[in-house]
Amino acid sequence: NQQATHTSSYQTKMQKPKASKGSQAKKEKGKNTVNDIIDQALGDSNTSTSSEDQAFKSATNSVLDSNPIAAIAKTLDTPAAKASLAAATAAVEPPKALNDNSDDTASVKPLTNDTTETSQTDQGKTNDDGKTPIPVNPIEPVDPDKPVNPITPVNPDNPDNPVNPVDPVNPVQPEQNTAPVLNVPEDQTVSLSHNGTFDVLNGVTASDKEDGDLTKAIKVTGNVDLSKEGTYTLTYSVTDSAGQTTSAKRVITVANDLPVISADDQTIEVETSFDPVVNVTASDVQDGDLTKDIKVTGNVDTTKLGTSQLTYSVSDHDGGQTTKTINITVYAKDASFSGLDALTVQQGSTPDLRKGVSVSDPYSATPSDFTVTACDT
């Protein structure tokens, strides 16, 4: 209501008839007084008392000098002027509470007689009225080295229950390179050979998960001499594109193959001829047929029945020797009878049991040299 009253009074004052050109010109020739400025600023406020207005006017009723702003500031810096100005300002708009947000428009804090604007150099000093202004706390500069507390996100559906921060996702670790795989045959024993060669890569392969087949990249350290007996160590290695190396070892034994003698036990008839090397042979992997080089130890008497032993031996060109022993048995053929037919005799008589019987023996000159033994049937 006070604001409306003041506005109406101000509008009424602004609608007053303008002064005549003569009087206006008369004032322009002179100078505006402080009373004119105060009337224009305060209007016809009903809240200020006439005695306060008169005191204000009489205290400031002087001609403005060349600096109007400084003159007005000097004039208003009196208790009476402050009281009158405070009353007029309160009539226009009462001060709002600090926590009153009903009006979204910006409001101007009224200037009263118990506050005084101070500069930063005046902070902490006491004003003329004995009041100390509230100091303004300076803004702390941000320390880049000081860690900042993480902000916990708020659940919009339930502000009292904050959303748990999402655990950081572990970065994907790069896949580790896989070493190559070597496939090497087991240790091997090979035959000595004067003309052959040994393929050290036969049956050896290499593969890698990233690079694929690496068989052609295999490196071998060492060699095998098939012409000399002994043990040879081969070292295989392969390296993939990432620099990982796999190695493996293999032992190759070169051995001389001993000759092989082919001879079996024999049975011969008494008083027959016997050649100890007949049907006996010898062979060697490196040297071939060695039958002519066979040596025989022992003797067989074909005139006597019984068993005799013969030992055969043979050596190859590399010094390998083989021996073998066999048994030679001398036997005789059995005699054969004829005339052994059934015989019927009279009881009480003495028959001739040799009558009509003959024997054939290749080794005896007397065919009748045999005995008869009676037996029950």
From TrEMBL:
For the Pesticidal crystal protein Cry22Aa Ig-like domain, which residue ranges apply?
A: 186-254, 264-330
Q: Where is the composition biased (Polar residues)?
A: 1-14, 43-65, 110-124
Region spans: Disordered: 1-67, 80-168
Q: Where is the composition biased (Low complexity)?
A: 80-98, 148-168
Q: Where are the transmembrane segments?
A: none
Q: Which Gene3D superfamilies match?
A: Immunoglobulins (2.60.40.10)
Name by which UniProt lists this protein: Pullulanase family protein
